[in-house]
Structures are given as structure tokens and as C-alpha cells.
Amino acid sequence: MAQVTTDRLQAEFEGELVEPRDPQYDMLRRVFNGAVDRHPALIARCAGPEDVIAAVNHARDRGLEIAVHGGGHGVRGHATCDDGVMIDLRPMKDIEIDSARRRARVQAGVTWRELDEATQAEGLAVTGGRVSSTGVAGFTLGSGSGWLERKLGLAADNRAQPRSSWRMARSSPPPRASIPGCSGGCAAAAATSAS
Ligand SMILES: Cc1cc2nc3c(=O)[nH]c(=O)nc-3n(C[C@H](O)[C@H](O)[C@H](O)COP(=O)(O)OP(=O)(O)OC[C@H]3O[C@@H](n4cnc5c(N)ncnc54)[C@H](O)[C@@H]3O)c2cc1C
User: 193 partner at 20 to 30 Å CA-CA among 86, 92, 112, 115?
Assistant: First the structure.
């Protein structure tokens, strides 16, 4: 398994960097589909958008594959990778509900259970996943078909201000060309909002 030097990343990273020797590594590298058994060289547990940017830059500068882990429900296992950097968004749990504008803003680690709990407390709802541990961001990026879609449309149809409300961590120059074997999450969205 590849080893990744993390000294420079440690200096600017607010979250947690997990390596194969760490006790929580095996639990964190797994995804919902138990048939997927990959071993990233580094799991970057991001505390916020700046960490996402730092982790993307770290991987890009070293030519490492990137996998973005939201809720981990993607069946093909694109949330993890072998020998690359898993950008783990799960610690990013901020939720803001603006009930007057009927708008929610969530960070990229929020699951449908967590968003439903927050919106239901305000008597509000948005089309969410049929399984509550699915990630809001990954679900919405893939359109998102849920319980309320006949009334409210797909989750992506309800995303507000699509251009301005997504904080994108992006490798530059163009990500798809510069990240070898990019496994489906070449740009990482750190927050989104829905109304
Ligand atoms: C049990 C089960 C039930 C499901 N039910 C439904 C359903 O009812 N309706 C439906 O529409 N779909 C359903 N799905 C499919 C699921 O919604 C999609 O696979 C969705 O993409 C999972 O999102 P996630 O964040 O949980 O998964 P992940 O595997 O973490 O993410 C999925 C993909 O999106 C990328 N990604 C995640 N977050 C970000 C981000 N912030 N920025 C950039 N890329 C990101 C990942 O890299 C990966 O490629 C279901 C899947 C399972 C396993």
C-alpha cells in the first residue's frame, strides 16, 4: 500500500488525517456496498471547505487519485479508492434552516436523516432519499429521486442558486485531465442549499 507524506498538509489541515496504521482506518475506508474493498493511502476527514481545498491540492500535487466520500451510498464505490486520497466529508455537518424563505443550507457531510430532522422541526420538507443514511450532496448531485418527488420534483430540481451556493474545491488546471484515475468526484462541493 502506498505511503503518503502528510507533513505539509498537517500544517494547514484543521480536521483529522487518518492513515492505514490508525485504529479507525478500517471503519472509515468502508462504503455502504460491502463488496467494495479499497484501501486509500490517506483519509482526509475535512472540518470545512478550506480542508477540502487543501486535500484536493495535496492529492493533485502528488498525482494521487481522489475519491470524495459523502454518505458512501454510491453502489460503485466511487467514494473510496486504492492508494489515493479519500476526501471524507462526513464531519461537515452544519445545517442552517431559514424557515421564512423556506431554504436550507447544508454542508457536504449531512445525511437525509439529519436534514429531515432539522426541516421537520420547522414543519418543512424537501425531496429526500428513501434511505435516511444517504448523503444529501451525493444524492442531489445524482438528481435524487425520493418520497416527495411527485409533489416537489427531484432533489436537484429544488437546489437553490446553483451557481452561487456551491463552494467548489477544485483542482486546477482542469481537474479531470490532471487527476489520474479520478473516480467520480473530481470536484468536491462543500455546501449546497435547497428550497
Ligand atoms: C440503499 C440505497 C438506497 C438508495 N435509494 C435511493 C433513492 O431512493 N433515490 C435515489 O435517487 N437514489 C438512491 N440511491 C442512490 C444514491 O442516492 C446515490 O448513489 C447517491 O449518489 C449516494 O450519495 P452518497 O453521498 O450517499 O454516496 P457517495 O458514494 O459518498 O457519493 C456518491 C458519488 O457522489 C460523489 N460525491 C458525494 N458528495 C460529493 C460532493 N460533496 N462533491 C463532489 N462529489 C461528491 C462521490 O464521490 C461519489 O462519486 C440509493 C442507494 C443505496 C445504496
Answer: 86
Statement: residue 170 has pLDDT above 70: no
Regarding whether 101 and 33 lie in a shared domain, the answer is no
Does residue 20 sit in the same domain as residue 34? yes
Which span out of 115-119, 157-161, 186-190 was modeled with the highest average pLDDT?
115-119
Q: Into how many domains does the chain fold?
A: 2
Question: Ligand 1 mean position to 102 CA, how many Å?
Answer: 24
Strand, coil or helix: 111 = strand
86 shares a domain with 14: yes
Q: How far is the CA of 88 from the centre of ligand 1 (A)?
A: 14
Structure confidence by residue, pLDDT tens digits, 134-157 = 999 999 988 899 988 998 899 888
Give the span between the Cα atoms of 129 and 72, in whole angstroms.
Answer: 13
The CA distance from 154 to 26, in Å, is: 34
Output the residue whose Cα is nearest ligand 1's atom 53. 73
Say how far apart CA 57 and CA 162 lie, in whole Å.
Answer: 24
Residues near ligand 1 with C-beta < 6 Å? Answer: 32, 68-75, 78-79, 89, 108, 129-131, 134-135, 137-139, 141-142, 144-146, 184-185, 188-189
* Alpha-carbon span 166 to 32, nearest angstrom: 25
Please indicate, yes or no, whether residues 57 and 103 belong to a single structural domain of this protein.
Answer: no
73 and 124 in one domain? no
In a domain, 41, yes or no: yes
76 C-alpha to center of ligand 1: Å? Answer: 10
pLDDT value at 182 more than 60: no
